[in-house]
Amino acid sequence: MKEIIEKLTKRPDSVTYEELVDILRDPAIDEDLFKAADEVRKKYLGDEVFLRGIIEFSNVCRRNCLYCGLRAQNKKLSRYRMTPSEIVERAKLIAQKGIKTVVLQSGEDPYYMPDAIAEIIQKIKGFDVAVTLSLGEWPESYYRVWKDAGADRYLMRHETASPALYAKLHPGSSFEERESHLLTLKRLGYEIGAGCMVGLPGQGPEELALDLVFMREIDTDMAGIGPFIPHPDTPLAKEKKGSLRMSLKMIALTRLLMPTCNIPATTAMGTLHPRGRELALKCGANVIMPNMTPSPYRAKYQLYPGKICIFESDDTICASCTVRLIKSVGRIPSKSKGFRKRGIENELVHTQHPCQ
Ligand code: 5AD
Ligand code: SF4
Ligand code: FES
């Protein structure tokens, strides 16, 4: 056991798919893994935690991902679209609170595409913040327009790197397409954010190890990892939710495999467990994304049930709450834009990929 932890710490590129499956299967290794991930995070990234203010500006979606409450076929959800000026105003508020990244997230909603988004980006860039997009799959020409408008990063979780499971969960699309979008975004100069859910029906250690190998292979700049939480108005309503331990394990392994990757303590972690985000920060995570969606829209962005931070009264509270949370685990809220650290991977011993 000691040996595999040492390999993960010193030569993460040489850890094989089979070894990752074994680690994911073995609960006896968990505590050592969490500790090693926390040490690697501290060594490479220090104690700063990056804040990203997220605006969920539209819950309209043209797709039908089986797990998601925003899926087009969910007729029970009341839909909203924020206006461009509402979005820009909100971004200004995020900047005024000293948060240096604005994340614009929505369902796959054709309404704003691509020009309204470009104008919104241009205006928000005037507030001296980094802009992250999380808008789903669009033609390359749109990604270009948005990059030219000043967008810095793009979140597009790969959701699962098992092509068979991906096809089951995403009617009409394939894992191959997903991968090609991520590669296009990377080529265009975006920092990219892949990531997956943990505990999807039909997903075991073999599938989760595929996620880890995939993220390492595309060298993702960010990795959003959180438990699957069944939504009552979706075809997966009766499935089991993902486990806290396995989610933490995936975060820890991602940190060990990619020491400088930016890894958020996701909202889904906080929804699964009252201290889920704190635990994530202690197992390798170094980012937190306060929800800055204004009420009354916020409650309607229901990817999964029980999502935390739904208040009617003060819709800016998450900004101060996350700062407190960061401090409560002995870390430092960062004042920077939080781009991925570059150039220190050389300290690791690089080996050839086992397949080459
Ligand atoms: N449980 C957990 N995460 C979910 N997401 C969507 N639906 C669910 C769910 N039921 C995640 C997906 C998506 C991100 C925005 O939210 O991974 O990429
Ligand atoms: Fe739409 Fe994204 Fe939900 Fe899929 S996960 S249904 S693309 S909002
Ligand atoms: Fe939203 Fe704490 S982060 S209330």
What's the short version?
Helices cover 39% and strands 12% of the residues. With 356 residues, the protein is α/β, with parallel strands linked by helices. Bound molecules: 5'-deoxyadenosine (5AD), iron/sulfur cluster (SF4) and FE2/S2 (inorganic) cluster.
Please describe the structure with a list of short key phrases separated by commas or semicolons:
alpha/beta, TIM Barrel, six-stranded parallel beta sheet, three-stranded parallel beta sheet, 9 strands, binds iron/sulfur cluster, binds FE2/S2 (inorganic) cluster
What does this structure look like?
Helix 3 crosses helix 10, helix 5 runs parallel beside helix 6 and helix 9 packs parallel to helix 10. Helices cover 39% and strands 12% of the residues. The chain has one domain: TIM Barrel (Alpha-Beta Barrel). The longest helix has 16 residues. The chain has a six-stranded parallel beta sheet with strand order 2-3-4-5-6-7. Strands 8-1-9 form a three-stranded parallel beta sheet, with helices on one face. The radius of gyration is 19 Å and the shape is globular. The two termini are 26 Å apart. By secondary structure, the protein is α/β, with parallel strands linked by helices. The structure holds 5'-deoxyadenosine, iron/sulfur cluster and FE2/S2 (inorganic) cluster. Iron/sulfur cluster (SF4) binds next to loops.
